[in-house]
Give the backbone structure.
Amino acid sequence: MTAIVWFRRDLRLHDHAALHIAMQTGDPIIPVFILDDWFCRSGTVGDKRLFAYFAAVQSLANNLAHVGGRLLIRHGDPVQVLSQLAKETGADKLFFNRDYTPYARKRDQSVCDALTSEGVMVQSCKDLVLHEPAEILTKQRTPYAVFTPYRRLWQTLPKEQPYPIPERWLMFDRLNELPGEALPTLEAFGRKALTGDEWTVQRFGERAACERLKQYLNGDIQQYKDRRDMPGLDATSRLSFALKAGTLSIRTVYYLVHEALEEARGEGVTSIEAFITELIWREFYQQVLFFHPKTTEQAFLPQFEGVKWENNPELLARWCEGETGYPIVDAAMKQLGETGWMHNRLRMITASFLTKDLLIDWRYGMAYFAKQLIDYDEAANSGGWQWSASTGTDPQPYFRIFNPISQGEKFDPDGVFVKKYLPVLRDVPLQYIHKPWEMPKEVQEQANCVIGLDYPVPCVDHAERRKLALSLFQEAKDRHLMQKQNE
Ligand SMILES: Cc1cc2nc3c(=O)[nH]c(=O)nc-3n(C[C@H](O)[C@H](O)[C@H](O)COP(=O)(O)OP(=O)(O)OC[C@H]3O[C@@H](n4cnc5c(N)ncnc54)[C@H](O)[C@@H]3O)c2cc1C
């Protein structure tokens, strides 16, 4: 009797539901990871995202080798790979952790149907979230579309404890003899290798994730509430990649955060509670995507599906490159391009700017983020985009439009963040740092930042575009109402 454990977005050994439950059977295990050609070759997945994910897989392979095992890496369609592996080894059980995206659900159902029909027992486990979509429903047994009541119910439900680390690792005896593949490099897929100290396997692995969690709980989490919106302070956890790739378990995170909450006093308490609220947003968007799989393609609020976006390709390119002429937007887009990560406040500002100032359909921005973000998560990304575009569940109301100047002044008051990613603004006096086009000519020269030469002229006028955005949203709403009345 043998159990296959299929790793996907749960690339760790600690507190891993499927691994734990498989080990409980007492059967030797075969840990497997399946490389999907689509993912590696797809132009929709950027180099940094691919690197980070491969690094996390490599780190899992190293950790398994450390406990006397091996991560078997195979290439191809999961149904065929797993069915073949079960035949080859006589494995009679398959364990994996559930994933709630439309693609993953379809894939997992096909795997389940195929292997069950071949006599393999298939068990999927809860691991990605503390509460699965169907666990949190209204009294009418419908999914929540508003966050606050969802959060209230989420908080009252008992939470599972982390699973213990196995005392002994029982691996399939012929594991090392099974044909497998090495993890490919980026170059193998015709991509450029990433260089620089930050692009190492260690940085994206399980150990780095656990250390970061501990470090965060011993420090910055205590001031999360006041500092989380200030990109220049770098005060958020930066655990999003670890939670995306599963190099950290959400049970462990919650358990340790909760311990910290019990010991906290004063500002520490409200800060840790605010941090937990963000973990709940993560689960809220998982359930939105689960119950409304079309929200990656369509507006959740039908009245805004018909907004007549301008979709100017030149403006889209300027936004992607960080060349809009609005420093907070440009610095944020540079942060994304250079690091593969962007601060949450900046995700909101850049998304609002794309949709409400440039009048570009949120789906373009969502796709660009999906390509660039190492922490790309379909549920959080579509949720965040629909929130910012005012089209989603419990969104930012469409008439509340971020002003990129006052957002910059409020959340980067000393210009630390914009200067970091836009060194050309280094000598710009603070009063102009978020509106450099207002600098008189001689000040521009003194600051070595001539607008239109060293730094772009704003590509649109915020006040004008704001009015236009309001009218486009209002028109879409009115048209929708008329259609409804005519039905
Ligand atoms: C337009 C847009 C797109 C986004 N795309 C993604 C994405 O692809 N992947 C992703 O993980 N997050 C996404 N977010 C949410 C959020 O910006 C990131 O989770 C956060 O910036 C990650 O940094 P952190 O780990 O330091 O967060 P912290 O502030 O330390 O939060 C802790 C954890 O809570 C979760 N979290 C925090 N905020 C949110 C949120 N608003 N929605 C869902 N989960 C949240 C994340 O797992 C995060 O790691 C998006 C937000 C917006 C507005």
In short: The mean pLDDT is 96. The chain is about 50% helix and 5% strand. The radius of gyration is 24 Å.
